[in-house]
Amino acid sequence: MPQPYPRKLNLWKRGLGTVPESVWEETELETLVLADNGLTEVSERIGGLKRLRMLDLGHNQLTAVPEAIGELEGLTDFLYLHDNHLSSLPPSIGRLTKLRYLNLSENDFSELPEAVTRMAGLIELRIDGNQIAVLPDSIGRLERLRELHLRNNKMASLPESIGQLKELQQIDLRGNPLVVLPDGLAGLPRLAKLDLRWVDSLEPPAWLLTLEARGCAVYL
Q: How many angstroms separate the first and last alpha carbons of the chain?
């Protein structure tokens, strides 16, 4: 009997340096883990892995993501790009509209790439530990978002459009130099956790008491 194609390939922490060309031949893969391998680039051939549902490129040395990542339109579960040296993403990544979890933490972003706000299926977005000073107004497009993690960035404020995230349950703003919060946060019906620890620059708005009264955990 012919051997079944592998659906999962875990190459975590193998010291690869570069991705073996044979990986791109595994077109039936649904899970590919390439984390912690000292990778500095990923081939455009990754676009051929049409069945991928989860891709882990975290803990590498990447300064760019291939344009072909936008061809992985079946990517639904997780995309890990954290702990690299990324400062931008290709516009094509906005085509990953079925993706539910994206981790961009611990990179070199000074702004959230606009393409991310076109990823309408996102439920959880992590961009901790970057240099982001301003979120785009288009963040309001992510209407399915439940968790937004922004810890240790450079934000003094948030856009009013954050009030459009009606499914948002958690927002982590720890370690940002915030001086003001948008009133729209107070109207988010599902908000259950607002984390403002290590924020010494903010005069807490009166409506935080209203949030707490309705059951939202506010951490100061």
A: 62
